[in-house]
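Supplementary Text 2. Reproducibility record for the structural model of the 211-residue chain.

All settings were left at their defaults, and a single model was retained for analysis rather than an ensemble. We include the record here because the model underlies the residue-level annotations in Supplementary Table 4.
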Amino acid sequence: MLQTLSNIGGSSILLTERIQLKPSPQLSRLCHLTKNLYNAANYQIRQKFIKKGIWTQYKDLYDLLKFTELYQNLHAQTAQQVLRLLDQNWKSFFSAIQDSRSNPNKYTSLPRLPRYKPKNGQYKTALVGIKIDLVEESYTSRVSFLDEEPIKEHDRYLGKRIKRGLYKSSTGHILNADVNGGYNIARKAVSKAFTADGIEGVGLHPYSVTI
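Retained model, structure tokens:
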């Protein structure tokens, strides 16, 4: 949303222009990358502030992150703007702390540290060199893992949920529905995840235990 102040007939009028962007894979990826940088930077600030009481401001934060993959995944101006936005959020936090001391009746609780954007854990793992692959999970909860059913839309599925939390395969075997979905996500991410040969056999082969 853009706002401009115009003088019309001797009066100042605030004009607003709203720009709507259509959803696209490119836009989704850009949002994902900016969120990861914001969260990684916020993690650095929060940890230093919580442990040492030191606020890492924009310049130091820029020096800390400018050579990281998270920063360089974005255009320089975009990455800088993400860090500036976070820096402004921390300034607002400290201003709120000062105001709460002067006007305690305005607050029902102390102002909180700037929060992370909706998390997926990726920003923390990136800091230690671990890469996360995000997998689109369509149909993974509907197809049958035990039947090796192809992960796609079907007119009729081999297995089905029989009650809350349980999934039944075409052969009558029952397993937890979340386990069925999780195994299918693994199949979708690594096509040979459940074969015996090679390192792709990740040790996730299920077996039944009689109790």
